[in-house]
């Protein structure tokens, strides 16, 4: 079997499965990685520790904003250079994302250490959670260069066709983090600070792996300083390609900060609960996101080749799969909602809030995959702007005013439905946009 057979003639169910399953696995690895700190900190039984980790989530999201900007932009630039057989340019790309990631990471570390108190106050830390959050932020701050570079490097490695090596790098960070979390948190009794140390060490180990890959294994890339070029055109190309993804992450970080600020007025237990629910609900969301993202090359190929019938069949089959997966995952979560929250922490007040919040977040669970599939269809058809608009609305532009409005009208009971309401609106918008855009395509 060759790639052409997969893209244009393999039966749709087999082709979708072949493309989607690796993407789903990668998404679930991301979910496990993101759950680890909250899960193991929750085993201390201290809701203040969980709240402290929840309050500092925006910092990690901001790290990922720059990692995704450099990584996705670098991947696009490297792919173009590879197509042109410009090996010097490829080395310049990998060198640029390395030193740009490290430079931004060092800047983040300095800002977090020098301005920790005002930053944590903005994030919603209070007298009960401040010291715990401070410990977490300090140990995550010096890990910033490694966190940003290891994530960015995985994109660039993948652009060379080395998906296995990129997956190994990601797995190293995840596995080290999961192994060290219980040791740092429970054995050494370091709590939230121990979780941060485990995360930092995991990313350092992943960075060591990518260092070895670039220095010893890659036939095309290099991170030698002589290839680093501050040339404006290269920097602009990389940053502009990855800028939309960075904006999404920045908006997600901002909306998380605002949500925490609103919730902390109701106590630390709701803050701890929302941190747990946010991580737990990622399973439902990322399962469908991985499925939808996995078939994008299939959609893009068939749109480019003019095979609109196959394009439409892939779209339809993927949406059916997303609905089935979404309904089953949501039903499973609804049935086991209490054990799921209790798995993270055994505190009745946090569990009570967590169950209400999880039910609220699950409202969009059955059909959120339709949103991701429609956005990927738009991007595959060369209509990236509507997809970008929808994503920006979902991540912050619509979500933030919805949170304030619901809080003003219904208090805490309203706030917890903010994300679900925003998801429902953006799903409907994606259906309307895509129907209009696809009218000519299917005509």
The averaged pLDDT comes out at 88
Category from helices, strands and their pairing: mainly alpha
Number of helices: 21
Strand content: under 5%
Question: What form results from the Cα inertia axes?
Answer: globular
Which regions are unreliable across 5 or more consecutive residues at pLDDT < 50? none
Number of domains: 2
Kindly report how far apart the N and C termini lie. 32 Å
Counting DSSP E segments of at least 2 residues, the number of strands comes to 0
The helix/strand order is: HHHHHHHHHHHHHHHHHHHHH
The largest sheet is: none
User: How much helicity do the residues have?
Assistant: over 70%
Radius of gyration: 22 Å
Structure overview:
The chain is mainly α and 443 residues long. It folds into 2 domains: 1-25 and 266-443, no CATH class; 43-242, no CATH class. Helices cover 85% and strands 0% of the residues. It is built from 21 helices and no strands. The protein has helices spanning 3-8, 12-42, 47-55, 57-83, 87-114, 116-123, 130-141, 144-159, 163-187, 191-217, 232-264, 268-294, 296-305, 308-335, 337-344, 348-361, 368-380, 384-397, 399-410, 412-415, 418-441. Helix 2 runs antiparallel to helix 12, helix 12 (268-294) runs parallel beside helix 16 and helix 12 crosses helix 17 (368-380). The longest helix is centred in the middle third of the chain and has 33 residues, at 232-264. The radius of gyration is 22 Å and the shape is globular. The protein starts with a helix and ends with a helix. The relative contact order is 0.12. The mean pLDDT is 88.
Task: Summarize this structure briefly.
The chain has 443 residues and is mainly alpha-helical.
């Amino acid at each position: 079997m060759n790639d052409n057979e997969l893209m244009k003639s393999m039966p749709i169910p087999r082709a979708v499965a072949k493309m989607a399953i690796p993407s789903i696995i990668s998404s679930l690895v991301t979910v496990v990685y993101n759950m680890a700190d909250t899960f193991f900190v929750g085993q201390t039984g201290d809701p203040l520790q969980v709240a402290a980790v929840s309050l500092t989530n925006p910092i990690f999201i901001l790290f990922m904003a720059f990692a995704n900007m450099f990584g996705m932009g670098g991947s696009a630039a490297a792919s173009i250079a590879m197509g042109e057989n410009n090996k010097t340019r490829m080395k310049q790309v990998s060198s640029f994302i390395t030193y740009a990631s490290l430079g931004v990471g060092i800047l983040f570390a300095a800002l977090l250490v020098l301005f920790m108190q005002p930053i944590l106050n903005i994030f919603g830390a209070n007298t009960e959670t401040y010291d715990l959050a401070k410990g977490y932020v300090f140990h995550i701050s010096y890990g910033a260069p490694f966190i940003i570079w290891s994530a960015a490097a995985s994109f660039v490695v993948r652009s060379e066709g080395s998906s296995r090596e990129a997956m190994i790098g990601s797995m190293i960070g995840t596995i080290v983090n999961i192994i060290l979390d219980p040791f740092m948190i429970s054995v050494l009794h370091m709590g939230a600070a121990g979780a941060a140390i485990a995360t930092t060490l995991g990313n350092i180990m992943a960075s060591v792996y990518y260092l070895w890959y670039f220095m010893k294994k890659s036939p095309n890339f290099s991170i030698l300083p002589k290839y680093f070029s501050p040339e404006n055109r290269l920097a602009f190309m990389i940053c502009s390609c990855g800028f939309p993804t960075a904006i999404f992450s920045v908006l997600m970080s901002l909306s998380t900060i605002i949500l925490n600020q609103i919730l902390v007025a109701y106590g630390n237990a709701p803050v701890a609960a929302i941190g747990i629910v946010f991580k737990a609900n990622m399973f439902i969301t990322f399962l469908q996101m991985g499925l939808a993202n996995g078939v994008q090359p299939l959609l893009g190929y068939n749109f480019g080749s003019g095979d609109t019938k196959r394009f439409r069949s892939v779209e339809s089959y993927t949406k059916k799969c997303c609905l089935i997966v979404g309904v089953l995952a949501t039903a499973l979560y609804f049935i086991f909602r209490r054990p799921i929250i209790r798995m993270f922490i055994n505190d009745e007040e946090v569990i009570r809030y967590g169950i209400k919040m999880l039910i609220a977040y699950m409202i969009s669970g059955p059909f959120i995959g339709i949103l991701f599939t429609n956005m990927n269809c738009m991007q595959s058809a060369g209509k990236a702007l509507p997809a970008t608009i929808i994503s920006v609305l979902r991540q912050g532009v619509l979500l933030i005013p919805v949170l304030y409005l619901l809080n003003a009208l219904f208090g805490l009971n309203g706030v917890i439905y903010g994300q679900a309401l925003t998801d429902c609106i953006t799903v409907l918008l994606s259906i309307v946009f895509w129907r209009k855009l696809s009218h000519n395509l299917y005509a």
